[in-house]
Specification:
The protein is an alpha+beta fold. Helix content is about 15%, strand content about 35%. The chain is built from 4 helices and 10 strands; from the N terminus they run E-H-E-E-E-H-E-H-E-E-E-E-E-H.
Length: about 200
């Protein structure tokens, strides 16, 4: 499961070519980020009503509408693929609100004697990729300044045929199966469309 990730090279040209973002999207205030953590604001690609891709900010840690107000506990930052269609926290977003979460690497933790060691994983070419995600909107209530838009990263299953996964090959039996959509030699725009269109 992904608990921290990076976006060290947020150049507009990379986002536009990798994710098909419109030229008008402004990323001038986006700084390199080397330790993106749960509850942080994160960039996400969502589909507009016209079908175009739009880049905006969501909070990492899904707050799935009014369902979340009846539950307590830590934020939902990862969702197993097999739980998305069925689990109440995810099902509506899985059907109606999918997204891509841009990154250029993520951390997994290796258990060494007496400590955990962070291991940074990325594509071989260092390019951007997109985590498959879903998002939700919690409408404003009371004195809240506005609606809360939040997201969760989808954890891939071993049988997933639509998304490409990586395995960190770790020898401790805890290989990191993840959910990013693009090895360098494949048609990533097609794969993004497969996820975004359901």
């Amino acid at each position: 499961m992904c608990g921290r990730y990076t976006l060290a090279n947020p150049k507009p040209a990379g986002f536009r070519s990798r994710f098909g973002i419109d030229e008008s999207v402004d990323l001038s205030d986006e700084e390199p980020r080397y330790n993106i953590a749960p509850t942080d604001p994160v960039l996400a690609v969502r589909r507009t009503e016209s079908g175009a891709r739009d880049l905006g900010r969501l909070r990492w840690g899904l707050v799935p509408g009014r369902w979340a107000e009846r539950r307590s506990g830590p934020p939902l930052i990862n969702a197993r693929a097999e739980s998305l269609p069925e689990q109440p926290a995810f099902a509506e977003s899985f059907r109606e609100r999918r997204c891509l979460i841009p990154a250029d690497g993520f951390y997994e933790w290796r258990r060494d004697p007496g400590r955990k060691v962070p291991i940074w994983l990325s594509r071989p070419d260092g390019d951007l990729f997109g985590f498959a995600g879903i998002w939700a909107e919690l409408p404003a209530r009371g004195e809240s300044p506005g609606a809360l838009h939040s997201c969760v990263i989808r954890a891939a299953s071993n049988t997933d045929k639509n998304l490409d996964c990586t395995n960190d090959g770790s020898s401790n039996g805890q290989g990191a199966m993840h959910k990013f959509v693009t090895p360098p030699d494949r048609n990533y725009h097609f794969q993004y469309d497969v996820w975004m269109s359901g």
